[in-house]
Amino acid sequence: MSNQLDQLRQQFLAYLAAHPFRKSPIGLYEPVDYIMQLGGKRMRPILALLAYQLFKKDVDAALPVAMAVEVFHNFSLVHDDIMDAADLRRGKPTVHAKYDTNTAILSGDVMLIKSYQYLAQIGDPHIQAKLIQVFNQVAIEVCEGQQYDVDFENRSDVRIDEYLKMIEYKTAALLAGSLSMGAIAAGADEAAVAHLDRFGRKVGIAFQIQDDLLDSFGDPAKFGKKVGGDICQNKKTILILQALKDGNANEQAQLNQLLSTPTTNEQQKITAVKSLLEHLHIPTKVKTLRDQYLAEALQELETLEVEAAQKAPLFAIANQLVDRVI
Question: How much is the pTM?
């Protein structure tokens, strides 16, 4: 199974290497090449290829679809980094930090257009139309999810259902779209595409819930970044929203004060917030919600009318994405 995933990753990386963004004007395309070569797990193109492979064996015809979702994903990172004023991406300078903000905006714009060009390489006009329809909806949802996230920064009344919708759009929609477009490229029927879409959305939500957990309660050596970053940035993660919902008036006031006061002593603030979360049993409650979404995702995959052996890599990926250690 891991051999299959490795093989698909290598096929995609070979395709990426064969289609560099090195052309004139260099000022526009060099930053595109830079972000595309920064690495990452390449999860979205692999999901597209796996979904295609459920219905057809030779994935060569699906590589432009895989490229489209990866270019779009990286386009969104370029613009997100500008909005977040982030200086690092995957341990390297972000595009706007390495070049400048105007360059990053323009290079990001051309990446979005390039995504459509790759989808246009699918010759069958009927399939191409379906791909573009799904891609358009995913792109809109990603933008809407980003706006919800921005709006939440200035709201004190964010509900859990609103947060779950935000992460579905911002994170899960592209995972689901990658799967859906891979299946569509292989000629899968609407029922199969719908199962894969729901599978991807529920896995994506479970993944983000686990990411929120890891940010506050993960092992820094295994998580790969500083634990407590969300707390220091006063982010309204699922843990915070659940605590505000479950806490009494005094606990709510204490948490709101911690999150509205400028951070002068990061470790003291992290310790205080985590202590309150643990007192309210928030990690256990949030894990239960995560597991519920994962179970629903796996049920969608179970219902998909494809041989079990062919679905095994998707089961494995779902569990790997969510079952990262605390």
Answer: 0.93
